[in-house]
Each structure stands twice: as structure tokens, then as C-alpha cells.
Amino acid sequence: MFSRPSLPSTTAGDVADDAYLLDVREDDEWQAGHAPGAVHVPMMLIPHRIDDIPADRDVVVVCRVGGRSAQVVAFLQQNGRERAINLEGGMQSWAAAGKPMVSGDGGVPRVI
């Protein structure tokens, strides 16, 4: 059997306020609610925008529950962004931890 190497990950409670948070969800998910200061690059655009992602600092990657972000972390690490870290549980865990959120649609921030 082959084992997949584990990816670096962190919990919402351990993310520093000044962390570079890369949100890879779709536009409607982002508009519904996201972390203040997060950078939005939908997952499918990551290969085209990789030069916009820092290589010299930790980059915490987030999606809704952690699956897409884990794929992005693996891709980033394979492409020289060795400090990419997956946010366990995604925005669902972010919201559950009581971390701040804002919406882009004027509504109450929520995770969809």
C-alpha cells in the first residue's frame, strides 16, 4: 500500500491575526462570508495566480471544510510554496471557533 505524506495543517484557533490567509472557495462562498483580510483566489485559478502567493512566509489555505484547501496545499508545495498550510475544518471550523467574519453581500456573514 502507498501512504500519502501528511500535509502541514493548523486549527482555526492557532491562526495568527496577521496570517496570510488564502481562501480558495468559489465567489458565492466568499461573498457569503470570509475572514477579514483573507485573499480570495478560487481553487481553479491557483495555477494561473501562483506568482501572487508568497513563497517567503506561511500561507494558511482555507475552503469550506478542508478538502479543496488540502489539494491546493499539495499543489503549492509541489510548486515551491513549501510554507503552505491547510486549515483543518475550513471556514466551518473558523466560524465554530468564533473567529471574525465579514460578508461581501451586505448580509450577516455565514459559511455556505
Write up what this structure looks like.
By secondary structure, this protein is of the alpha/beta class. It contains four helices and five strands, in the order ββαβαβαβα. A five-stranded parallel beta sheet has the order 1-5-4-2-3. α3 links the parallel β4 and β5. The model has no long low-confidence stretch (mean pLDDT 94). It comes from Dactylosporangium vinaceum. Pfam families: Rhodanese. InterPro entries: GlpE_sulfurtransferase, Rhodanese-like_dom, Rhodanese-like_dom_sf.
Question: Outline of this structure?
Answer:
Pfam families: Rhodanese (PF00581). This protein has 112 residues and is α/β, with parallel strands linked by helices. The protein has helices spanning 27-32, 46-49, 67-78, 90-96, and strands at residues 9-10, 20-23, 39-40, 59-62, 84-87.
Major β-sheet strand ordering: 1-5-4-2-3
Which geometry do the CA atoms define?
A: globular
- Helix fraction bin: 25-40%
Instruction: Determine the strand fraction and express it as a percent band.
Output: 5-15%
- Outline the low-pLDDT stretches: none
Mean pLDDT: 94
Instruction: Return the structural class.
Output: alpha/beta
In sequence order, what are the helices and strands, one letter per element? EEHEHEHEH
